[in-house]
UniProtKB/TrEMBL annotation:
Keywords: Membrane, Methyltransferase, Transferase, Transmembrane, Transmembrane helix. Pfam families: Methyltransf_24. It comes from Jiangella asiatica. One of its GO terms (molecular function) is methyltransferase activity. One of its GO terms (biological process) is methylation. It comes from the Bacteria. The keyword Transcription does not apply. Signal peptide: none annotated. The chain crosses the membrane at residues 12-33, 39-60. This is Class I SAM-dependent methyltransferase. InterPro entries: SAM-dependent_MTases_sf (IPR029063).
Amino acid sequence: MLRALRSLLGSRWPILGMLGALVAVAVAVGALIDGSVVEAAISALLGLALVGLVIVGASAREAEQRARKLDAQLKHLASATDAISTTLKAIESKQDDPGGGALAAAIGAQRLDAAVRHDELLARHDQLRGEVVTALTEDQLSELSALTNLYAMLGPDDEVPVFGGYAARPTTVLRLASLVRRLPGDALVVECGSGSSTVWLALACRRAGRGRVIALEHHERYAELTRTALARQGLESVAQVRVAPLEPVTVGDQTQDWYEGKNWADLGGIDLLFVDGPPRSTGPRSRYPAFPLLARALNDGAVVALDDVNREDEADIAGDWLAEPADGVTLRDAGTIGRTRFFTASRGQDN
């Protein structure tokens, strides 16, 4: 009956119901004024009934709208379910195909390829791991053996700066120390840079009873640390560390920051030149000027050693030194020890 009434009145029935309730309230008030309590009560009840009818009708309409929306969602869900069911049936039919079908063939090929790649990666990983471990072990054993030889051969009386970081490696220092013992009595060893190698070279000079060491160092703090280490061994009379700030120098068409000229201009009669500075941070080819600028001070047959030739810049510098004589001095390759390349200096045209 409520739905029929709503259909008859259309969307106007809530308004009409509320107007009816207001009229009933007005009649009830008038009846009370006239003293008719029964008519007032009846009118009030009629107004409340109309209000209740409007409320119930509104709730029913809202519930109907929700039901319609839910029904639409259920239909959409049913449609999606049917589509999924159809797809699953198609996949099942492909899987049931004795030949595997195109889908099974594609999946099988991908699985086989993935399995093969996985096995290849595992095999390569094991191979590389073995190569790295072997290389590290051999390198560490070599350096440890060289360090043991240094202590046995030179026997320092006190603490020596440890190797590591930017310091020359024990294999390099061992070769340099061995060369020092074969130098003439008034031999001069010049080192570009200072540190633990300076101490070991000075120890080699003292043990051989000949030679002296001069190290050029651009950093005051590192120079002082090296001097302290030398003093700890009582080597002040054997080795000298000169603080030589860096300044731009031009050799040929190249300009680099190198040690201040006044700190090396007096050097002469060099029998061993070890180039382990300036550091790379001062420039990519900062060590190049060492041979061109000090060539005039090298004795015939002097040994020149360039550290860190495992780096591209230093490897290029070594190549340039071999190809470019300076002040009548030519360098000949004398082999590589670890990451240090050795050269022999020769004077004259017949070398």
